[in-house]
């Protein structure tokens, strides 16, 4: 960059912007500008995710991002990793196949609340139950953005949506509770305001072995905010700031969200349990012995790991909550 | 070995090492065989939470580098339909077997039919082309499973094996040749410079080579209309290019894809056109008709989609009638009528499934066709 008295060297529509942007290595700059509205929280989540990968030291060629459908479903199209934009609600099973076909990948699902918790709800609970080694980021804006602001399974009771024009009378899911109860081994929640914490948590989840679920409460200014007369993106940030309550290690039964009420944040759950693939390999090694062909890319390495786990299996599920480490 | 088990063995012989599935009668034995055999061969079996998850995991696994297969029956097949469209749009090579049973709805879950023949062709939304093969025996379940994988890899398209309950549960001798005598088409892996790689090439004749996630190409693919890089390109012009390609890569190669078996068509007055289990019943009727002095030939469709249009047109020019027995209320007969275009009579011997035809019904139709 040149001195302060000069104009910026790039603007959003020239070539140097695309090449010199600090995110250029991680984003498909040739696809910019993106489709998200001003004030939307999805871009913040993408930035934090990319920052976390940058800091993680992980091999960027071994990271794959899978999305479903909707505004958040478009994330896969903008990140410069192997990326897959799939059918509505099916990002998790797609990611499951991808991960199992090539276990050396770190597979991350980034999608919305409608996609993951409504049409994809069954896949969410079963992937958590199996402790499938996936990282799932659910961008929760309490609404279906791309189809025009309909109610979702996370819309707080009383909030207005285009299909609940007189206010929502249903009970919403509390996603951290759902993920925890289903067997997820890493569960956290932040808001789009908590960029630093979110990045830290993404970093941890990237290194977590097993099913991690991170909910990010994000504003949809065009639909949710406007329909509910909640102002713009900045007003959403004010609300998050005033109502956020960081409660690391909180019992997930207590972290439900009411309309414009308090939002409990933090890392609620972190525990270790064999992943689906660990369970497959450990089980067959035990019952079939040497006749079992270990599944996975590097058989020698897998066998070593499996033997290590067998030695440690006497100790039950170890709870390794280190509360407070995220802020 | 029964047909369901033979499907699994054929897939394993073709190099399939990933199976995500969900149990449904009468296809379950294939899944069970995979569950049994995968640990012995370094493969992975996973029983998913439903059919949608199964088929979607399979598409994901292809992009992770595996050869994949799943198997289902009517209701499960319907649930998978949306994802078949995704697989077509992403040009994903995969094999799906439908062990057909009667419907609609739950119908008769344990009894045979051929009622998904049009669903496989048109069931997913939008315009696309697939390949569908129909085995008539456990041996063909094995052989066509391998053929299906080869076609899937060549054309980067989902290939369907439309078997049925009777073939699925029929026990017959299956000859498994030595591995070095089986022709296996491996995936066309891209090997050029990274910066030049394009996952798609809409030339309408061939499919672009593939890479897998983790190889460092940082590919993007989507169910949206896309350009050669796989990036969304939402214009009618691009859609025309993509859809035209999906259709033409199958249609322009139809001659190399289509396999049929024929017997005594030359000089025949009547030809029976059938496929799968119905063709085995038709053989008995044809024999009886020949004993009665009727000149009757047989055309067995091994590939049903793409449809053998030219062959049907040629036959229709030279016969009095074409008889089409099938275990549905008339599906493939519509294609036969279309291609015959009034040049000869087309007699449908339809059935609402639950049991195979009585050969007498087919014989009666042959007699009717021979003596108008």
TrEMBL record, chain A:
One of the GO BP terms on file: cellular respiration
Record-linked Gene3D superfamilies: 3.40.50.970
Indicate yes or no for the key word Oxidoreductase: yes
Enumerate the spans annotated as Thiamine pyrophosphate enzyme TPP-binding domain: 77-216
Keywords (A to Z) from UniProt: Oxidoreductase
GO function term, MF aspect, one: thiamine pyrophosphate binding
List the residue ranges forming a coiled coil, or say none.
none
Q: Which Pfam families match?
A: TPP_enzyme_C
Transmembrane segment boundaries: none
Looking at the record's lineage, which domain of life comes first? Bacteria
* Protein known as: 2-oxoglutarate synthase
Source species of the chain: Blastochloris tepida
| Lineage, top ranks | Bacteria, Pseudomonadati, Pseudomonadota, Alphaproteobacteria, Hyphomicrobiales
UniProtKB/TrEMBL annotation, chain B:
The record, for SUPFAM superfamilies, names: Thiamin diphosphate-binding fold (THDP-binding), TK C-terminal domain-like
- Tell me which residues make up the Pyruvate flavodoxin/ferredoxin oxidoreductase pyrimidine binding domain: 9-235
Give an example GO molecular function. oxidoreductase activity
Q: Which domain of life is it from?
A: Bacteria
The Pyruvate:ferredoxin oxidoreductase core domain covers 268-362
Keyword terms of this UniProt record: Oxidoreductase
Single GO biological process annotation from the record: response to oxidative stress
> What name does UniProt use for this protein?
2-oxoglutarate ferredoxin oxidoreductase subunit alpha
- Which species expresses this protein natively? Blastochloris tepida
């Amino acid at each position: 960059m040149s001195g302060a008295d000069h104009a910026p060297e790039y603007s959003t529509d020239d070539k140097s912007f695309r090449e010199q942007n600090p995110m250029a290595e991680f984003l498909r700059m040739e696809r910019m500008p993106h489709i998200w509205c001003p004030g939307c929280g999805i871009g913040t989540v993408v930035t934090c995710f990319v920052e976390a990968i940058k800091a993680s030291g992980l091999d960027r060629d071994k990271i794959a991002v899978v999305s479903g459908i909707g505004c958040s479903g478009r994330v896969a199209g903008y990140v410069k990793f192997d990326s897959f934009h799939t059918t509505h609600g099916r990002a998790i099973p797609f990611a499951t196949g991808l991960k199992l076909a090539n276990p050396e990948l770190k597979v991350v699902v980034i999608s919305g609340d409608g996609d993951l918790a409504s049409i994809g709800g069954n896949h969410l609970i079963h992937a958590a139950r199996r402790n499938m080694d996936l990282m799932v980021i659910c961008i929760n804006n309490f609404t279906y953005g791309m189809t025009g602001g309909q109610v979702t399974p996370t819309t707080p009771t009383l909030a207005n949506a285009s299909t609940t024009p007189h206010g929502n009378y249903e009970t919403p899911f509390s996603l951290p509770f759902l993920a925890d109860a289903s067997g997820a081994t890493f569960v956290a929640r932040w808001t789009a305001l908590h960029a630093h914490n979110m990045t830290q948590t993404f970093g941890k989840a990237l290194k977590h072995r097993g099913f991690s679920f991170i909910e990010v409460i994000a504003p949809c200014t065009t639909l949710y905010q406007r329909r509910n007369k909640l102002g713009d993106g900045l007003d959403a940030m004010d609300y998050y700031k005033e109502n956020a309550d960081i409660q690391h290690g909180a019992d997930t039964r207590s972290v439900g969200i009411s309309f414009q009420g308090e939002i409990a944040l933090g890392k609620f759950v972190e525990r270790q349990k064999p992943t689906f693939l660990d369970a497959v390999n450990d089980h067959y090694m035990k019952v079939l012995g040497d006749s079992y062909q270990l599944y996975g890319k590097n058989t020698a390495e897998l066998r070593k790991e499996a033997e290590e786990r067998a030695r440690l299996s006497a100790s039950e599920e170890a709870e390794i909550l280190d509360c407070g480490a995220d802020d | 070995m029964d047909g369901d088990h033979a499907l699994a063995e054929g897939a394993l012989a073709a190099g399939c090492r990933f199976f995500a599935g969900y149990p449904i009668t009468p296809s379950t034995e294939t899944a069970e065989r995979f569950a049994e055999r995968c640990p012995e061969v370094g493969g992975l079996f996973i029983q998913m939470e439903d059919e949608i998850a199964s088929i979607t995991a399979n598409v994901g696994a292809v992009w992770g580098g595996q050869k994949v297969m799943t198997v289902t029956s009517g209701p499960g097949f319907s649930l998978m339909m949306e994802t078949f469209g995704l697989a077509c749009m992403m040009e994903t090579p995969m094999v799906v077997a439908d062990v057909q049973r009667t419907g609609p709805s739950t119908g008769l879950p344990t009894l045979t039919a051929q009622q998904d023949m049009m669903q496989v062709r048109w069931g997913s939304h939008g315009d696309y082309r697939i390949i569908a093969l129909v085995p008539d025996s456990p041996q063909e379940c094995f052989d066509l499973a391998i053929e299906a994988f080869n076609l899937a890899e060549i054309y980067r398209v989902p290939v369907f094996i439309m078997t049925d309950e009777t073939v699925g549960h029929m026990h017959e001798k299956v000859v498994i040749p030595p591995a070095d005598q089986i022709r296996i088409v491996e995936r066309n892996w891209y090997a050029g410079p990274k910066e030049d790689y394009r996952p798609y090439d809409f030339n309408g004749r061939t499919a672009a080579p593939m890479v897998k996630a983790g190889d460092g190409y940082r590919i993007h693919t989507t169910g949206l209309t896309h350009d050669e890089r796989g990036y969304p390109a939402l214009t009618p012009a691009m859609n025309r290019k993509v859809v035209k390609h999906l259709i033409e890569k199958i249609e322009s190669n139809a001659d190399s894809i289509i396999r049929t078996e024929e017997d005594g068509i030359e000089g025949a007055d009547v030809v029976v056109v059938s496929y799968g289990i119905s063709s085995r019943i038709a053989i008995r009727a044809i024999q009886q008709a020949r004993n009665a002095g009727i000149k009757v030939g047989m055309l067995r469709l091994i590939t049903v989609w793409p449809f053998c249009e030219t062959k049907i047109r040629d036959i229709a020019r030279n016969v009095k009638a074409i008889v089409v027995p099938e275990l549905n209320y008339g599906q493939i007969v519509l294609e036969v009528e279309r291609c015959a275009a009034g040049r000869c009579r087309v007699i449908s011997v339809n059935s609402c499934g639950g049991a195979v035809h009585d050969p007498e019904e087919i014989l009666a139709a042959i007699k009717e066709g021979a003596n108008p």
